[in-house]
Specification:
Elements lengths: L1 H10 L4 H15 L5 H8 L3 H13 L15 H11 L3 E5 L6 H19 L4 E5 L3 H7 L8 E5 L8 H15 L3 E2 L18 H8 L6 E5 L1 E2 L5 H8 L3 H6 L2 E5 L2 E4 L4 E2 L11 H5 L3 E5 L6 H10 L4 E5 H11 L1
Parallel strand pairs: 1-11, 2-3, 2-5, 3-4, 5-10, 10-11
Antiparallel strand pairs: 6-7, 7-8, 8-9
């Protein structure tokens, strides 16, 4: 408030007629999109003098420029994250809640809208099971006609959520649906199940996916895979090797490096197949996924991120 007060006092030092002229020029350029050359000719000034007037009107607080986006997105932070990590785009949801359920709800709403606006006719859309995508799928009523492919197996404590995502989005799209009714992690002796025609048919579709939406698993508190490995007595070994995240069927350390060890057991789209997908959207946020989001960004596995303000700020701070 003090800074704004100083700006207003400085603005008052301009004669009233000059204040009006500065506001007119700035509004014509910023609000109505008129080019500086056209405005300069109208007011009888040079283009450079006109540009200075626009800048000064903002500096003196004579006008305000503020976002009026219809969804709660921090546009500046989104642009900074995308630039820092070389993304196609980022959607940083403007919530600072520390409650994971509230963050998930906010991310799901933005995910539902972005998915709805992104899918095109005859697309092949890949989705993964997960609470955020399950919540997002409930907000999607209709999509352009597209095939929908499930990208990973299902965590057995929540079979209904795994089935919900692909079936709900499949109904909205009206195309062919390719579910993957197999646990996300299998024992080596269960490998023959992967030869079932329904499973091989889905897995063959991975290479045709054009747009992939996956949630990020944050180790150990916000990852179903980590919980399963913990019950099996295997998680400690992976944590010792630095695993903080998984996305698709790829384990990552904090530097974004792939950690091996579950080949043939972790069921779903491979890292190679995922990198070949043109649009790769990662969704994740909240306190227990902050390191996982950073690892995913560093990995280069995705080119669009949907996250929350706190997670985005920490990712930028870590890179600085």
């Amino acid at each position: 408030m003090a800074e704004r007060g100083r700006a207003l006092r400085s603005g008052a030092q301009l004669p009233l007629d000059q204040q009006i002229l500065h506001v007119h020029v700035a509004m014509q350029n910023l609000a109505h999109g008129r080019p500086l050359n056209e405005i300069a000719e109208e007011i009888g000034r040079s283009r450079f003098a006109t540009a200075r007037m626009v800048r000064r009107a903002r500096e003196l607080g004579l006008i305000e420029v503020r976002p009026t986006m219809p969804v709660p997105i921090d546009a500046d932070l989104s642009a900074r994250i995308a630039r820092q990590f070389g993304l196609r785009s980022a959607l940083v949801v403007a919530t600072r809640s520390t409650d994971d359920a509230e963050v998930r709800e906010a991310l799901a709403s933005v995910t539902a809208r972005y998915l709805s606006e992104t899918v095109e006719e005859d697309d092949v859309l890949g989705v993964a099971p997960g609470r955020t995508l399950a919540r997002a799928s409930r907000e999607i009523d209709q999509l352009p006609s597209a095939d929908v492919v499930q990208l990973t197996g299902i965590g057995w404590p929540r079979l209904e959520e795994g089935a919900e995502v692909v079936s709900a989005i499949g109904r909205a799209a009206g195309g062919a649906t390719f579910p993957l009714y197999v646990p996300i992690l299998i024992d080596p002796e269960a490998a023959p199940i992967l030869h079932h025609p329904a499973i091989t048919g889905t897995m063959r579709r991975f290479r045709h996916v054009r747009k992939a939406f996956l949630t990020i698993g944050g180790w150990p508190r916000s990852s179903l895979l980590a919980q399963i490995l913990g019950e099996n007595g295997e998680r400690a070994g992976f944590e010792e090797r630095g695993v903080v995240a998984e996305i698709g069927t790829t384990l990552l350390d904090i530097q974004g490096r792939t950690v091996s060890g579950l080949e043939g057991r972790f069921i779903g789209i491979s890292e190679e197949e995922l990198r070949a997908v043109p649009l790769r959207v990662a969704i994740g946020g909240g306190e227990w996924k902050q390191q996982a989001v950073l690892a995913t960004l560093r990995s280069g596995l995705v080119n669009v991120l949907i996250t929350d303000v706190r997670t985005a700020e920490l990712a930028l701070a870590a890179e600085r």
